[in-house]
């Protein structure tokens, strides 16, 4: 069988490229090197928050919201529309919330400004002393990051919309006179018209020389997950003052240029720490995260284990915002993703072979929308 498109990598970026190509009627094969996806797409919070993205990527994020909600109507992909709230803790952060609200209002992206009282009433579990005000985006989503992308790929496979093969590590893509071949580690060869490589942070098997010159960096994140905490009900994605001081949508605000970092935040800023909370259906809460950076082959340099010092910094700041029981942490882990100075790395290896990776920390929010535009561009529709 000859496919119209083979997508290498069943993370959120690869899966949604396959999804959108199938929607155009293309015969698609999705190849995943592991028994199921366990890379960047499963190591994150599962917050779908276009509000935090730059103006360009916000548009992709908004399209992602549409695609996620369409999918959730077909089956349970763990997609929940519970909104997102940014909590300002001081006047400077509140000023940024007000400025972003005006920007998004002008662009037609809905948000609601909450007073201190309004935040307290809606989120009574948060520490009142921390709260200055809040900015709420009711349309935004959360997902279970360990389940969502794998459920989507399984759905595509079970419904026959996409051929999905697991445990198929691709070791070569070869341009032919017409189309190209894809070869896997166990000797399988697949014929196709087009190949898209969405390899996450796996850079050792395909085109290592290209990746070595790509300026992709590796980011290491640390996150923690509590036991189910049934006495706490966060209702929405919670993003805090440190997030306001970090996310791209706020850095584009005019007043961000005059933002000063308090002494109490200096060490947290150096470690790339900002505090997010995302509560799952069972009551467990993901808390984090931190950001450390290295070159493209820097995972060994960064280390695969969590740094206890960073975990302690995260939890100390988290407890300033939310009263968490002692000994409540059930899991802790380090995640990784590749990121590029141009927001994403796109490279045409051959006429029919394209690399698309390095989407950074915005994949869960924007990949579904970005992949739609990418596929429509590929097929000129």
TrEMBL record:
Protein name per Swiss-Prot or TrEMBL: TIGR03364 family FAD-dependent oxidoreductase
Single Gene Ontology MF annotation: oxidoreductase activity
Gene3D superfamilies hit by this protein: D-Amino Acid Oxidase, subunit A, domain 2, FAD/NAD(P)-binding domain
Keywords, sorted A to Z: Flavoprotein, Oxidoreductase
GO cellular component: cytoplasm
Pfam families: DAO (PF01266)
Cofactor list: FAD
Keyword match Lipid metabolism: no
